Amino acid sequence: MHIGSVQPDLSGSPWFGGYDQNRVVGEVISMNGGPRDGITLQDISIDVIGSKSPSKSNSIDGLLAKGNSSIGGRLKVLIDGCSPYLTLPKSTCDNIAANLPVNYDKNLGLHLWDTKSDKYKEIITTTSTLSFSFISNSNTDPIKIRIPFMHLNLTLSKPLTDTPTPYFPCHTHGNGQYVLGRAFLQDAFVGANWHPDVDTWWLAQAPGPNIQLTTNIVSIMKKDKTVSKGGNDWKASWNGVWDDEETAANTPTKANTNEEVDETGMLGGTKAGIGIGAAAAVLEIGIGMFFIWRRRRSQTTDSQQRARNLRLQPAIKDQSCV
């Protein structure tokens, strides 16, 4: 599944028993278990994809472990759609923030955007991305998943702040558990096969909004251990959306990030939140992750039969994250 995004508008694509191949871009990472069992994050970098860079360098790497010897060059992170944030070590968030016009709020555990800075407008509208490099048993060479900063320009609201406050969702209050949540899943494809003989999940880059409107649904058979990428080019899927020519302002997405409530807000007069698209997939990733996690744990005949019955059916909309 791919939860999609609000700005720019890309509808979610949650499926049971299959997947939309158009939402799989680039190489696929395969791992045993499930997203909540974790994956190895090797590094984080800031990469500029186009010709216009808001900084002196088109690539700044080493942001995961710099200044923190305890990380040791790699970090186990969980993928969980019930979290809105990028929950990482404080040293990592600080390393990223050192290259951004943000200020740290100790009480919130978040960095707030300095909207008066010219760099703010440049970073969230140009081809700047926050890139996550992963490795697993299936790939010794790191595979990157890139999140445009356009998707990392969010807004806090009550009860967390009295007035709407733009923030960068790198969260530091994880208490030793590190999670890539919905902010990350706007640009990632996640799939799984919970058959007991397979027990595998997949992670890949998801495309930007400039993709074909039609779906290309592929069945996941009970013994399938991998999925195949589609024909979309990731960079091309963002053409005309981000600014590689001139700097322009971008209105941040207003979002309630209290983890016990829906992350929603108002953007351009339209109620929205991370991951909502035309298919209204705002929290389907949360219930979807729980559903497939529960199926993997139980591995009962009934759950296997239910999966067959639901094969190639869109996920049912739900408004809660369980």
TrEMBL record:
The keyword Membrane applies. Keywords: Membrane, Transmembrane, Transmembrane helix. The chain crosses the membrane at residues 272-293. Residues 1-204 form the Peptidase A1 domain. It comes from the Eukaryota. Gene3D superfamilies: Acid Proteases. This is Peptidase A1 domain-containing protein. The lineage of its organism: Eukaryota, Fungi, Dikarya, Ascomycota, Pezizomycotina.
